[in-house]
Every structure is written in C-alpha cells, then in structure tokens.
Amino acid sequence: MRYLTARKRAEFRGSAHHGTEHHWSMTVSAVGLALLVPAWLYVFGSALGGTREEVLATFARPFPAIVTALLLVVGMRHFAMGATTMIEDYARGTTRKMLIIGVVALSWAIAATGLYALVRIAL
After folding, report:
1. Rounded to 5°, angle at Cα 71 from 116 and 106
2. pLDDT tens-place string over residues 76-97
3. Which residue segment(s) compose the domain that 62 sits in?
4. CA distance 24 to 67
5. How many independent structural domains does the chain possess?
6. pTM for the full predicted model
C-alpha cells in the first residue's frame, strides 16, 4: 500500500513564479481599457448614424484612428491574457495547449484585421 503525504501530492504543482507579473499586466491593461473605452465610445457615438463618407472622414482623423487602434491592441491583449488564465484553470494536457494557441491566434487575428481596416480608412 502506498501512502502519499500532502507535500508529496503538491510537489511540482506549485507556483510558476509568474502570478504577480500576470496580475500586474492584467491590471495595467484594465486601467488602460478603463480610459480608452469611454474615449472610443465618444468617437464611435459621434460617427454613429452618419453617412459612409462622414464615418470614413471621422476615422481618417488622427485622434479617432489612434484611440481605435489602441483599443484594438490593448483590448485583444487583455482578452488573450484573461482567456489564457481561464483555460489554464480548467483544461489539461494537449487540449490546454491547443486552446491557448487558438485563443492567442484569434486575438491577434482580430487585432490585425481591425488595424488593417483602420489603416485602409486612414490612408
């Protein structure tokens, strides 16, 4: 009969030593989003309901384009970090790795698509 102590069961399942760094990066991106989202909502709200030419003219200006680009990049980075944390908590093995790769790829694809569209509008 084999007896495992609590310490032996917990060995190699402890801290990865990245928790504080991850917490701070999530906090910084959350504060950034808290500042960016109201500014973007103002820009988007002012463009909402306009004709196509008015909307294109709005997002061709520097301030709306920069706010939108920052919101895309910071928002998708925050999403990728949060979803990765959730996946790490609930999935194991190869499934975990594939889900993390999928979430990170999805977030970068959304950010790249949005930035491409924004550049097309601005130029």
Report:
1. 60
2. 999 999 999 999 999 999 999 9
3. 19-122
4. 22
5. 1
6. 0.82
